[in-house]
Amino acid sequence: MAGGPQNFMNRLESELIKYNLPKHSIINPTLESKGLTYNNKSINIGRLDGISYHKLTSENFYNLLIQRKNLRLSFIKKIPNSLLNKLTVPVNNYLNRNIKSLLNNVDAVVFQSEISKKMYDTIIEKPVNNFAIIKNGIPTDIFKPISSSSISNQYPKIVITANFRIHKRLHEAIRLTNFLKKKYSKVRLHIIGELDYLTTESIKDLNLDSCIFHGNINSSLLPHIYADADLGLSLCLFDACPNSVVEMIGCGIPVLTNQESGASELIKEESLTISENIKFEYLPIYDNEWLPKINLEEWAKKIEFIMDNKNSLKEKMLMRIEEELDIRIVAKKYAEFIYSNEK
Questions:
Q1: In the β-sheet with 43-48, what is the strand arrangement from edge to edge?
Q2: How many distinct helices (H) and strands (E) make up the chain?
Q3: What SS3 class is residue 231?
Q4: Domain locations along the chain
Q5: Regarding the domain delimited by 157-325, which CATH topology (the fold level of the hierarchy) does it fall under?
Q6: What's this model's pTM, rounded to 2 decimal places?
Q7: Taking the chain (343 residues) in consecutive chunks of 10 residues, what is each chunk's mean pLDDT?
């Protein structure tokens, strides 16, 4: 299963070739982009997703090094948080260095959501005056409802997809699934994507009987899995624009998420979002003890609502694709933004 950002870029470029665009580049902030020599005769568009916003505590810093470098430096856990907090800004400046390098060289910027722009303004604090907010989109000939959808199921078939890191909160999705067993004894959670070490550790003591782990799968299989589900979950905090959510709603399934995520901007349906009242700032997101636990009763009540209103919610999800999230609509917005920056 290819990564979401690369999948989106491939889809976008296949649409943009239909336009007679001036010479341009659309660039994500990666290690490779840091060393690029930007063409002054080309329109260089930076495309910004999320950023690093780690509050350095002993546990968060220890886990950050495991996740990023596979280093287990136990002495870090003995460093007082008061000392590590002082490193929060410089360490995040380093982690966001590719973003800063990109911004120094591009002509304009596309943010993938309002929350992505808010994250940037809060942490980077360097004004970006020439920008557009354009959400990701999907090809509707691939991600679409299919006739075998389990619309008649009397128990939830739930799907969650990610390259799982601990702040994606898979452990909370599993806790929710187990809670749902009180009402839906046959509930199943389909988990798509690789689990990193910290995520694996976070679920090792949970009951996994109702979980089906698919691992990394070929992207061509996703539409069938999504369209055959009853609903999707997106529990990640401050996820700028999760491609999996666009793909799910393109297949006609409602996605339940938190308001502190770009997923809520994709869905735009109050009945499918839950506020966790978390302020965006530097946060210890790799500390499992800090990560907020969801209100199981509140989330379960939403899922009961979804099960009772699948048909109407399906129509609302498909309407979101028609309104804004069809890749053809998204590509047109990119094309217009590129034209507006023609040199």
A1: 24-27, 43-48, 108-111, 131-133
A2: 15, 10
A3: strand
A4: 4-51+96-137+327-340, 157-325
A5: Rossmann fold (3.40.50)
A6: 0.93
A7: 72 94 89 57 90 97 95 96 96 94 91 96 91 97 76 79 97 98 96 97 97 94 94 96 96 97 96 97 96 98 96 97 98 97 85
